[in-house]
Write a structure and sequence with these properties.
Layout lengths: L4 H12 L13 E4 L2 E4 H9 L18 H4 L3 H15 L16 H10 L2
Antiparallel strand pairs: 1-2
């Protein structure tokens, strides 16, 4: 996201004067997930296994959460809430495409939620 989305968003804001909102720590700080409040740092730490709140199945070599558990992560749930907010509040969403991986559960959730 930092290589594609952030530069594009900065161009929209600086050169076009368009207000933007992104799913990152600059715009999002707290989420209520399943009745409990979490900060951005907590959901990042949970996903990256730096400060895990829950245990997920991970790839042994990369440490990444496996697809079978990705939907259980706080980050995935927070991202889905963000996508639902964009739809509910009528935001204009520009899809920059995920690129190389078209079978991403993450990207598929976003597009199915926003562009349904």
């Amino acid at each position: 996201m930092t290589k594609r989305v952030d530069p594009f968003a900065n161009t929209l804001k600086k050169e076009k004067g368009i207000e933007i909102e992104l799913f990152n720590s600059a715009f999002q700080s707290k989420f209520t997930i399943e009745g409990k409040e979490y900060t951005w740092q907590q959901i990042i730490g949970d996903l990256n296994n730096d400060d895990p709140i829950f245990v997920y199945k991970r790839d042994v070599s990369t440490g990444y959460v496996l697809d079978e558990d990705i939907e259980k992560t706080l980050m995935f749930k927070a991202n889905k809430q963000f996508a639902e907010k964009l739809t509910k509040e009528g935001y204009t969403v520009i899809d920059l495409d995920y690129g190389l991986v078209s079978n991403s559960k993450w990207y598929n959730m976003e597009t199915q939620t926003i562009f349904k």
